[in-house]
């Protein structure tokens, strides 16, 4: 069989780096789209940089997307690029809409006009469920986003469905619940906590300022979740899937698991700071991955506890260097 080509937008992000590793291990030619920055930040992909084709493009720029699809003729496109931090979506709502919502249409347009048999994956999110209308959340659960980010992802989800139905594109939307790893951005709650735990343990920090400890999330491991993205594009028909663990934990449990792993009590170190509260919160997320299990044979391999311990260990090792 001839070598397949995959284009990944957002290859410098957490998921992009794991997905690139997975596709390289399956002998794909991997093309990674990066936006122009004054300082290059390829930390997450530096170990595989020689094996991927890096190409400049931006979700804001239609012609760059067209040119990339024309030049590389990808068999599969994974649209992982986005403004992905919920609090920033409140302070930069218009930009978030441009990247996270309209960016999806730009890439779908590039595929439709240039290579319509390309298979397309859209990185949709459990944030679309927001103020949840059903517990647990599944593919048919009505959407009720609670942030400009969530609203933008709803647009991205429905434009993906619409291009599938209107133009017969092989377009899938993966509704992924929170997934983490040692490569997670430091502003997200899991990595913020595990990094602080490592610093406190090493005597480099004393306190940790946090927001809402009652929020509940369904947290999995990013390495497991990128496998689901690939599986969606290998099916006979395009469809949408919830990817989750089916378990939910409060932020306070995250703190407890992380601090107690190194023999500390989080109540001795955590300070509640209203600065980290959001204008509107998503209180409870718990996904039902039954469809993905049945149709894709997908199941998560890493438990919540193992994930948190893995992240604390990685932060300790990094800080000791
Ligand atoms: P990250 O924030 O780690 O990565 C986002 C990527 O998008 C980075 O590579 C970033 O590039 C790139 N990007 C941002 N804006 C643009 C732009 N205008 N043009 C081109 N590239 C751009 O996100 P994750 O890896 O965690 O998530 C991947 C995707 O999955 C995102 O769409 C996210 O919204 C979605 N998602 C994530 C979940 C999670 O729990 N991680 C759950 C559900 C959905 P740069 O390095 O230049 O900033
Ligand atoms: P989320 O992730 O908003 O779910 O979006 P995040 O880790 O930022 O927040 C999870 C929950 O923790 C609460 N929280 C805090 N969050 C942060 N970041 N910092 C804090 O100090 C803090 N204290 C409490 C939050 O209020 C929230 O309830 C992530 C992103 O990756 C999205 O791109 C993705 O779509 C969704 O997950 C699924």
Structure characterization notes:
The chain is α/β, with parallel strands linked by helices. 40% of the residues lie in helices and 16% in strands. The protein is built from ten helices and 13 strands. A seven-stranded parallel β-sheet has the order 3-2-1-4-5-6-11, with helices on both faces. Helix 6 packs parallel to helix 8 (251-261). The structure holds NADPH dihydro-nicotinamide-adenine-dinucleotide phosphate and guanosine-5'-diphosphate-rhamnose.
Strand and helix layout:
Layout: E1 5-9, H1 14-25, E2 29-34, E3 53-56, H2 62-72, E4 76-79, H3 86-91, H4 93-114, E5 119-125, H5 148-167, E6 170-176, E7 179-180, H6 189-201, E8 208-210, E9 216-217, E10 220-221, H7 222-232, E11 240-243, E12 249-250, H8 251-261, E13 270-272, H9 290-296, H10 304-320
Parallel strand pairs: 1-2, 1-4, 2-3, 4-5, 5-6, 6-11, 7-10, 8-13
Antiparallel strand pairs: 9-12
The site of guanosine-5'-diphosphate-rhamnose (GDR) has 21 residues, from helix 6.
Structure, briefly:
The chain folds into 2 domains: 5-179 and 220-243, 3-Layer(aba) Sandwich (Rossmann fold), CATH 3.40.50.720; 186-217 and 248-281 and 301-320, UDP-galactose 4-epimerase, domain 1 (Alpha-Beta Complex), CATH 3.90.25.10. It is built from 10 helices and 13 strands.
